[in-house]
Amino acid sequence: MVKGILHIFNREISGLHQAAYLLGFFAILSQILALFRDRILASLFGASQSLDIYYAAFRIPDIVFATVASLVSVSVIIPFLIERIDRDVDEAKQFLHNIFTFYMVLMSVVSLVLFFATPTLTRLLFPSISQTAYYSELVAMTRILLLSPFLLGLSNLLASITQVYKRFFVYAIAPVMYNIGIMLGILVFYPIWGLPGLTLGVVFGALLHLLIQVPSVIESGFLPRFRFPLDFASIKKVIFISLPRTITVSSNELTELFLISFASFLIPGSISVFNFSFNLQSVPFSIIGVSYSLAAFPTLTRLFSKGDQEQFLEHMVTSSKHIIFWSIPISVLFIVLRAQIVRTVLGAGLFNWDSTRLTAAALALFTVSLIAQNLTTLFVRSYYARGKTRPPLLMNMFSAGLIVLVSYALVIVFRDIPLFRDFMESLLKVATIPGTIVLMLPLGYTVGTLVNMCIHWYAFEREYPRYSAPVFRTLFQTLGASLIMGYVAYKALDVFDSFFDLDTLFGIFMQGFSAGIVGILCWLLILVLLQSKELSEVWTTLHKKIWKAKVVAPDASL
To answer: What is the CA radius of gyration of the chain?
Structure first.
């Protein structure tokens, strides 16, 4: 039995769609746990200052993860490992030992410094919170969470090995374990230790994220260990490549930090509304954009290293078309069914109707940027596969600055121009609700993200002129079918209004679910009539059964 379980964990999966759907399946499972987590948090705290403190405590650790820990990210390490494995397995192992040692020393020093600097940093980032009784808890929770980036960074280093050998199963299940740990924190640790218990659950989840990958890495023979003296020549190469990528990722984290800092100056609960809506829109992003970009990355890296530009472009086109195929209809459904989604996931306990409407409006604004987030993730991976880190750095830094500036400008305009405020509140159906100014933050985020996608697309098209034509065909076809689907689903909501009791969780869920199913069936019918190639490819992939995917033998040298 144990041997059978290890076989499942260590199997290698070939095929872009099979790998993407496997990652997507576990992303769905992980996100279900994350939604359950958010529902319990919403029920226990509502959109309150207590929950604002919990989310604020993540900001410094998240910056550490995006900067220091991402120096050994999957995107950076994989090309180095592939190059060395193809040349000499022992050389690859020595390289990994060297990077592991450097990472452990660096993260230990950084974490220790930040532990003592936490009171000063939190006071600077959240001055409004520092004046409340929650400040000491914010400091304590931030310090506990500093363990999380340490563990997750180490886990990502191991993940580079599992991805090189296309062992996507173990990589895919790691986020599930992470969310299981967080759930234990909410259900077990919080009743014992209060708010700091929530952060202990996060750390425990990060530990599970790491440990689940250890058996597969041991089996591959690549378990890293300390190596002294350090080979600074190879470390320098990694840092030279990863630093732009690190700044790229950290720019996104800094953007969120600024937006959450803005929210802390608004009414209590604004940070919670922002985070709840951002987490909800992250569900399809994790399932689609992250899954496809992760599945495509090793193949893109190998194709480029072999100089096969034609297949590289074809792989990018295929990935882009399927990202669009899934992103647009899900975005439309999220916008149409936003109230039902928020009430089903979060509508319990102290999370009242005003918070539900405000979060639903923020979700709709975030969701507009879903296709941009997904495609930009793929474009960035394509640059990393080619060893180019400067272009995405510059583009994402520009986007991050634009998001912050646009969000701040929109907050000012919303506050000072009643006509604009009334228009937005009427459009999003949140008139008379206090705190609607927080909606300018997701709106600013969406504007900047859409601009970022356009810049990435234009830059990629300049290098590969034959990229856009086939992708545009899928874009227009899917957009047309999705808009019709959205209209049908919207009308179906009124039809099912009288079928279910909307004062119950089951009734709300069934109204949205039924309307969504009607819309999806309409969408499928239109795509069948249009003879959608993507729909045919999806059916073919599912018909082959992902769980029976061909197992690829490991390299003979191992």
So the answer is: 23
User: Quick one: DSSP state of residue 126?
Assistant: -
Q: Which two tokens stand for residue 453?
A: 């996608």
Instruction: Enumerate residues 6+ apart whose C-beta is below 8 A from 198.
Output: 54, 141, 185, 186, 189, 190
The reported pLDDT for the residue numbered 20 is 55
Residues 6+ apart with CB under 8 A from 536: none
pTM (2 d.p.): 0.77
Residue positions counted in the chain: 558
* Residue 78: both structure tokens together: 């994989």
Q: What is the pLDDT of residues 292-319, one digit of tens each?
A: 776 677 778 778 877 778 888 888 888 8
Boundaries of domain holding 117: 49-254
Residues 6+ apart with CB under 8 A from 53: 129, 134, 137, 138, 141, 195
Q: What is the 3-state secondary structure (H, E, C) of 188-235?
A: HHHHHHCHHHHHHHHHHHHHHHHHCCHHHHHHHCCCCCCCCCCCHHHH
Q: Confirm if 53 and 272 have CB atoms less than 8 A apart.
A: no
- The predicted structure's pLDDT at residue 185: 92
Q: With helix as H, strand as E and coil as C, how does 99-114 read?
A: HHHHHHHHHHHHHHHH
> Could you tell me if 345 and 362 are in contact, meaning their C-beta atoms sit under 8 angstroms apart?
no
Domain count along the chain: 1
| Residue 232: inside a domain | yes
Whether residue 154 is contained in a domain is answered as yes
